[in-house]
Amino acid sequence: MSKSILITGGAGFIGSHVVQLFVEKYPSYKIVNLDALTYAGNLENLKAVENASNYYFEKVDIQDALELEKVFEKHAITDVIHLAAESHVDRSISDPLAFVKTNVFGTVNLLNAAKKAWEGELDQHLFYHVSTDEVYGSLHDGGFFLETTPYDPQSPYSASKAASDHFVRAYANTYKMKTVVSNCSNNYGPNHFPEKLIPLCINNIKNMKPLPVYGKGENVRDWLFVKDHARAIDTVFHQGKAGETYNIGGFNEWKNIDIVRLLCKKMDEKLGREEGTSEKLITFVKDRAGHDLRYAIDSSKIKNELGWEPSLQFDEGIDITIDWYLVNEEWLDHVTSGAYQDYYQQHYH
Ligand SMILES: NC(=O)c1ccc[n+]([C@@H]2O[C@H](COP(=O)([O-])OP(=O)(O)OC[C@H]3O[C@@H](n4cnc5c(N)ncnc54)[C@H](O)[C@@H]3O)[C@@H](O)[C@H]2O)c1
Questions:
Q1: Cα separation, 226 vs 190, whole angstroms
Q2: What are the extents of the domains in the chain?
Q3: How much of the chain exceeds pLDDT 90, in percent?
Q4: What is this structure's pTM?
Q5: Beta-strand relationship, 186-188 and 253-255
Q6: What is the pLDDT of residue 203?
Q7: Topology classification of domain 3-187+225-251+294-312
Q8: What 3-state class would DSSP assign to 295?
């Protein structure tokens, strides 16, 4: 085995696509998925690779330093791709400390475990930290986030991610650990937990339930298909320069309300409903506290230096996404009923 890569948060939305890509594309790598299986972790996301000979799963919380050390030793981990996090802004508003515990404390634990395991050869191993564009704050006057944009996090979620980014860079500077950070815009696609805008709307439109939209739905986000993010992570992992940061985005800005209307229109067509049926479900609700107005990422650096760019246009990606949720009814039923949480017991015990 040429590499033994620890991917944290591999049972989550983005992590599951990264794990699948690495397991299938690099049969000579050992891929160790480490995940605590919180409400957001779903091993059903990994059915396609769960029996692959180069895939391993460890149910471990990154808050547990001793267990992390054991995993590094057991699998002779050579590199880390760190995605495990609490990731939902609304949850961070009601429980900020949970975000500090996993995103900050957990990341520092992981850095320490890597530092200990790689002592004396820190320059030969990579610690890749996956982060978000939300660390840059909110754009009010046009423009884009660059890798050099000063951090200005506005929510407990983005503050915790910003802190974790700073720790990763501090370990690079202080201990000469080989690190790389990428900051990506909003992802959409299969395996997305239906608490986030796009899968929530698809599920509610399907079931003719209200579509809650914050404020007037004027907030703007840049959307990237999740498999394109996984490809970008593959590119940065293999070609990224140590110590660098790469912004990843789709050059694809949408107001929330326009996304919701697009989903209504497309799903009316796909479900054979009369045009306008689903739009009637739109329900404006009180805005999220401190809701960032606009995020927009400039991903020229990764394009120019590493040759990555999105492969899908949004129209195509959103069709693939809706069709996936309509076909994978069992996945959605298990997630909404909570049955997905039994999967670990059934398959790993
Ligand atoms: N979703 C996005 O649009 C987006 C955009 C940019 C960056 N990111 C970042 O990418 C990463 C993955 O995001 P996601 O949307 O896939 O998140 P997710 O919430 O779908 O998945 C997170 C995963 O981490 C696991 N996890 C949570 N706490 C843990 C802990 N203490 N120990 C071990 N595992 C734990 C969960 O079980 C889950 O499998 C996060 O770091 C997030 O900040 C997400």
A1: 8
A2: 3-187+225-251+294-312
A3: 91
A4: 0.97
A5: unpaired
A6: 94
A7: Rossmann fold (3.40.50)
A8: coil
Whole-number Å distance, alpha carbon 83 to ligand 1 midpoint, is: 5
> Does 133 participate in catalysis according to the annotation?
yes
Residue nearest to atom 32 of ligand 1 (CA): 61
Cα–Cα distance, 238 to 209 (Å, whole number): 44
Residue tagged active-site, from 35, 133, 222, 292: 133
Rounded distance, CA 161 to CA 132, Å?
Answer: 7
Distance 86 CA to ligand 1 centre (A): 6
CA distances from 280 to 110, 134, 261 (A): 47, 31, 10
Query: How confident is the model over 74-87, as a mean pLDDT?
Result: 98
Q: How many CA atoms lie within 13 A of 209 on its CB side?
A: 9
CA distances from 123 to 120, 133, 222 (A): 8, 27, 34
Side-chain-side CA neighbours of 151 within 13 Å: the count stands at 16
The one catalytic residue in 58, 134, 147, 228 is 134
Angle between helices 197-206 and 314-327 (to 10 degrees): 50
Q: What is the pLDDT, as a whole number, of residue 121?
A: 96
3 state SS of 323: helix
The residue with tokens 């978000």 is: 132
String of DSSP letters for 43-67: GGGGTTTTT-TTEEEEE--TT-HHH
| 114, 78 contact by CB (below 8 A) | no
Tokens of 315: 């129209």
Q: Which two tokens stand for residue 182?
A: 């990428």
Is pLDDT above 80 for 21?
A: yes
The continuous run of DSSP H or E covering 92 comes out as helix 89-94
Lowest mean pLDDT segment, chosen from 87-91, 137-141, 239-243: 137-141
pLDDT average, residue stretch 137-153: 93
Instruction: Evaluate whether 93 touches 138 at the Cβ level (below 8 Å).
Output: no
Q: Which atom of ligand 1 is nearest to the CA of 102?
A: 31
Is 134 a residue of the active site?
yes
pLDDT of amino acid 34? 98
- Among the listed residues 29, 55, 128, 157, the single catalytic one is 157
Residues with CB under 6 A from ligand 1: 8-9, 11-15, 35-38, 40-41, 61-63, 83-87, 102, 106, 130, 132, 161, 184, 186-187, 193
CA separation for the pair 267, 52 (Å, rounded): 35
